[in-house]
TrEMBL record:
Signal sequence range: none
Gene3D superfamilies noted in UniProt: NAD(P)-binding Rossmann-like Domain
Phylogenetic lineage: Bacteria, Bacillati, Actinomycetota, Actinomycetes, Micrococcales
GO molecular function: 3-oxoacyl-[acyl-carrier-protein] reductase (NADPH) activity
Biological source species: Microbacterium laevaniformans
Gene behind this protein: fabG1
SMART domains named in the record: PKS_KR
InterPro entries per the UniProt record, alphabetical: KR_dom (IPR057326), NAD(P)-bd_dom_sf (IPR036291), SDR (IPR050259), SDR_fam (IPR002347)
Protein name: 3-oxoacyl-[acyl-carrier-protein] reductase FabG1
């Protein structure tokens, strides 16, 4: 069984990342999370890392390797938003979001791939968003960074697909988190009217898809975009 494998989830201290890490722990994986602050869920090994800084990531990976062993499954989840309309968006609003969401994924996956190539086995799971393919006003920086993960996973599949390594994208829609809870009720209802399922997802519904992609059942799936959005975006 693969359940003794080592998993690293970036941004695993809150929201979807935390739910993903908790689900891996529940299924018996040896689970580490990166966090800039706070701690991962119970049963995880938390390391400090900033995904925009390759040296801090390298140190974090080294800690995980010492504590748990080589990382076999990596979930690139860390992300930020700086929402504003195009004409108001500053260079920094754009560059910082792309540096974290896309550049961070590049740095994490590059570091993880070394151990996966040695092991001739690996799972790369990138957390995108429905807005990467559906679009969203005020999110040109964010949606661009999330759409880019599709090309990333597909190019990685072509590079490493013959080495027992898969790379896939999970694209969540609206999820019940602290962020959506703060939206006014009429805004929430407006969003729900546009979602065929008529509700937001629970973080655990995203986590279940991620752990399935990490399993042997998904060994022949690579370069896929899997929406977890209640039908909002209708896939790719």
């Amino acid at each position: 069984m693969s359940h003794d494998r080592v998993v690293l989830v970036t941004g695993g201290n809150r929201g979807i990342g935390r739910a993903i890490a908790a689900r891996f722990v529940a299924e018996g994986y040896r689970t580490a999370v990166t966090a800039r602050s706070g701690e991962g869920p119970e049963g995880t090994f938390t390391v400090r890392a900033d995904v925009t800084d390759a040296a801090s990531l390298d140190a974090a990976f080294s800690d995980v390797e010492k504590q748990l062993g080589p990382v076999e499954i990596v979930v690139a989840n860390a992300g930020i938003t700086k929402d504003t309309l195009l004409l108001r968006m500053t260079e920094d609003d754009f560059d910082s979001v792309v540096a974290t969401n896309l550049g961070g994924t590049f740095r994490v996956v590059k570091r993880a791939s070394k151990g996966m190539l040695r092991a001739k086995w690996g799972r790369v799971i990138l957390i995108s968003s429905v807005v990467g393919l559906y679009g969203s006003p005020g999110q040109i920086n964010y949606s661009s960074s999330k759409a880019a993960l599709v090309g990333f996973a597909r190019s990685l599949t072509r590079e490493l697909g013959g080495r027992g390594i898969t790379a896939n994208v999970v694209a969540p829609g609206f999820i019940e988190t602290d962020m959506t809870a703060e939206l006014p009720e009429d805004t929430q209802n407006e969003y729900k009217r546009n979602i065929p399922a008529g509700r937001f997802a629970t973080p655990d519904e995203v986590a279940g898809v991620v752990t399935w992609l990490a399993s042997e059942d998904a060994a022949y799936i690579s370069g896929a975009v899997i929406p977890v959005d209640g039908g909002l975006g209708m896939g790719h």
